[in-house]
Amino acid sequence: MLVPKPRFPIKQMVLTGWLPGFLKKALYKLKGYKIGKGVSIGFGSVLCGDDVAVGEHASIGFFSFVRGRHIRIGDRVQIGAATFIDTPFVEIGDGSKINEQVFIGGLQFPDSKFILGRNCQIMQMSFINPARSITVGDDSGIGGDCLLFGHNSWLSQLEGYPVEFEPIEIGKSVSVSWRVFVLPGTKIGDGAVVGANSLVSGTVPPRCLALGFPARVISKFPYFPKDLSRDEKAGLFGNMVNEMILFFQGSGLICEGAGPDHTIFRAKKNGRKSGKSWRIRVAAAPREEREAAPLSADIDVFLSFDAIPVEERAELDARRVTWFDVENKETSHETNDLGEEVALFLRRYGIRFFRANV
Question: What pairs with residue 270 in β-bridges?
Fold first, then answer.
């Protein structure tokens, strides 16, 4: 055949896939790939490209491959096991996660693109075909078993049947629920939610709820999403923090303290506290009401409902304290074990944090 049609990269997986991660990374660096510190590449997994850059602390699970001419994988990206990404132009933003057994590829053109923004997630078993291009904005989620098709063609166009090769655009902070089928040419606006088992075609406006087969807008702002007052938000935040402490306790950790400060211990097999502990301070009250309680030097995590001023962020960074700014959805660049658990728990409530620039 004149045009090569590569399928599964058997040769690369046989030659390099079995190598330990540190040897694999060394080999890729010799090939000119840019590999950040703390990168993990699982057994059987390979990268195949001409222009490849992988950010710091990114991880690729076992028996996965990423293939394309231009590949950009951001900091702290997670790609699950048995996931295949095969498209000429691939960009995955910082902090995004692609779960296990996701397929991104299929019928494409030389300029086909797949661009996933920062802090996004694609759940398992989804099939994505960027025939022209598929763009997903920051902080958006694609549910499991979803189908995103950039083309619609089988029967002859010369016999009157429709043939489409169109880009798909998904905005920022969009939720595409499980088992949604997105057709070529679809545009989904920022903040929209698409209900499960829906068929989406055309344009979905921003900040609305659309569902059905085909999907129709059934609710929109200010009814969806609701416009909450600060007191309502603070009440919800307080409930989240209480649930988080109960979750830690139910997961075998020992939690002491009340009010703004909690101390977290790992538990030994006999139920007693281990030597290592972490301290978290939760600032739910407005800043002017908590000026009298300065930050102590021995906290490990600072979780603030309101915005954290730049000077206070700098002070926390200097103390190597992991901080979370809920209002601005930002967190410190560096983290610790408790900070990772806090971030994971708050994701359950749709709160995801972008790492602040250093």
Answer: none
Q: Can you tell me the distance from the alpha carbon of 101 to that of 65, in angstroms, rounded to the nearest whole number?
A: 11
The CATH superfamily of 10-220 is: Hexapeptide repeat proteins (2.160.10.10)
Mean pLDDT by groups of 10 residues along the chain of 358 residues:
75 88 94 97 96 97 96 98 96 98 94 97 97 97 97 93 96 98 98 98 97 96 92 95 96 88 87 84 76 66 95 93 96 94 96 89
What b/e readout covers 77-100, taking b as 16+ CB neighbours within 10 angstroms? bbbbbbbbbbbbbbbbbbbbbbbb
DSSP conformation class of 196: T
Cα–Cα dist 9/65, whole Å: 8
Helix H segments across 251-320? 310-318
Among candidate residues 70, 71, 68, the one with its CA nearest the CA of residue 58: 71
Q: Quick one: pLDDT at residue 357?
A: 77
3-state secondary structure of 349: coil
Round to whole Å and give the CA distance between 332 and 317: 7
Output the pLDDT for position 11. Answer: 83
Torsion sign, CA atoms 290, 321, 39, 29: positive
Q: What tokens were used for 43?
A: 């057994």
Q: Are 132 and 167 in contact (CB under 8 A)?
A: yes
Structure confidence at residue 267 (pLDDT): 85
Pairing type for strands 89-92 and 113-116 reads: parallel
pLDDT at 187: 98
Which ranges in the chain are annotated with CATH 2.160.10.10?
A: 10-220
pTM higher than 0.85: yes
- The C-alpha atoms of residue 347 and residue 134 are separated, in whole angstroms, by 25
Distance, CA of 113 to CA of 105 (rounded, Å):
10
> What would you measure as the largest C-alpha separation in the chain, in angstroms?
77
User: E strand or H helix at 230, and its extent?
Assistant: helix 230-250
CB 144 within 8 A of CB 99: yes
pLDDT for the residue 293:
53
Q: How far apart (Å, rounded) are the C-alpha atoms in residues 223 and 207?
A: 10
